[in-house]
Specification:
By secondary structure, the chain is mostly helical. It has a single domain (22-142), classed as Multidrug-efflux Transporter Regulator, Chain: A, Domain 2 (Orthogonal Bundle), CATH 1.10.1660.10. Helices cover 59% and strands 5% of the residues. It has six helices and three strands, in the order ααβααββαα. It has helices at residues 6-14, 23-26, 47-53, 58-67, 85-100, 105-142, and strands spanning 45-46, 74-75, 81-83. The chain has a three-stranded antiparallel β-sheet. The protein is globular, with a radius of gyration of 18 Å. The N and C termini lie far apart (62 Å).
């Protein structure tokens, strides 16, 4: 049996390479506070940046990419996924249906297939209302 020193364990836990243990994600909230608040200033985002935006794992993003046709990030020569702002908007919509509205994968696919425009409008409306609510809460606290 191999025993690791505490320095080795600390180095492993602070390393940014490789897979992260699921315990690191268990404490994170399931609902992104305001995904629209993240300014999309770059032309391309890596899968790790996108996963961090949505507080999920890169494997979850890859799974959604395989499941949903509207999500098609570009890939570089090395095969790394590069997400454009429009891909991130599609991910926000997928995230909204699955995590916030509690649709199944098949239900979300069907919903997107039937009425993408209506779903997108409702999502934008919910996001606007959440921003207004946050503003009103802050206003109330300041009074």
């Amino acid at each position: 049996m191999h025993s690791s020193s505490s320095a080795e364990q600390q180095q492993r836990s602070t390393s940014s390479r490789g897979r992260k243990p699921i315990s690191e994600f268990a404490a994170l909230p399931l609902i992104v506070e305001d995904p629209a608040a993240v300014p999309l200033t770059k032309q391309y985002y890596t899968i790790s940046e996108v996963a961090e935006m949505f507080q999920t794992t890169p494997s979850q993003i890859r799974f959604w990419e395989r499941e949903f046709d509207i999500l098609q990030p570009q890939k570089n020569r090395k095969g790394d996924r590069l997400f454009r702002p429009e891909d991130i908007e599609h991910l926000r919509l997928i995230y909204y249906l699955i995590r916030e509205r509690k649709y199944t994968i098949e239900g979300a696919k069907q919903r997107l297939k039937e009425d993408l425009k209506i779903t997108r409008t409702r999502f934008e409306l919910v996001q606007s209302l959440q921003r207004i609510r946050q503003f009103l809460i802050q206003l109330k606290e300041n009074i």
